[in-house]
Amino acid sequence: MKKFITVAALLMLSACSGQQNQAATAPVNVQSLAGNQPVPVTQDAAAMASYPKKGHAISRNFAEQPPLIPHKADYSISLDRNSCMSCHAWNKAERMKATPVAKSHVIDAQGTLNGKNYFCTQCHVPQADNKGALVGNSFKM
Ligand code: HEC
Ligand code: HEC
């Protein structure tokens, strides 16, 4: 056993030193198929959208509007797991200080989600401060 560990440790050491050797070699020059074309116009990455830190409900604009999501919305929704429900399910909402999913979304008194309401982001969209205007607008009255 001891022998095995020593051999394994030696192997790991040599693997590491191999990496160090590689890092010391000259930088790789990648040439594009179009030759060395200069890039005349560069653009900064767009500002990241910022979501409200503490989710407070955003007032609705019309009856039956799916309320806007006042927080980031990249929680995964997959076939076997809906992460939104880890806060908005009826039995978790109070503890997570979130509004339980609407009565219209469930099929029984225990709050079992209706299949047609499973993909939350099909109807609910996040509200974010997007910093820059996304689309120009020249509307005049
Ligand atoms: C970590 C917990 C958590 C997760 C996960 C979560 N939310 Fe929320 N959500 C909240 C909290 C807290 C609020 C603010 C209180 C409120 O209005 O419910 C909120 C608010 C909302 C609201 C506004 C409710 C209203 O009455 O205006 C919607 C809609 C919503 N979330 C949808 C979603 C969706 C869709 C997902 C998944 C993509 C999701 N949430 C995931 C905690 C969470
Ligand atoms: C088919 C569209 C649709 C889907 C899918 C959907 N919702 Fe909704 N949701 C609505 C509408 C419309 C309302 C407002 C009317 C109502 O209360 O039924 C609403 C209301 C809500 C509310 C506010 C409830 C209240 O009492 O104020 C929450 C929270 C919510 N949805 C969360 C979710 C979550 C989480 C999911 C995914 C598990 C989801 N919704 C899926 C359309 C949808």
From TrEMBL:
The keyword Signal applies. Keywords: Electron transport, Heme, Iron, Metal-binding, Periplasm, Signal, Transport. PROSITE patterns: PROKAR_LIPOPROTEIN. Residues 1-23 form the signal peptide. Belongs to the NapB family. Electron transfer subunit of the periplasmic nitrate reductase complex NapAB. This is Periplasmic nitrate reductase, electron transfer subunit.
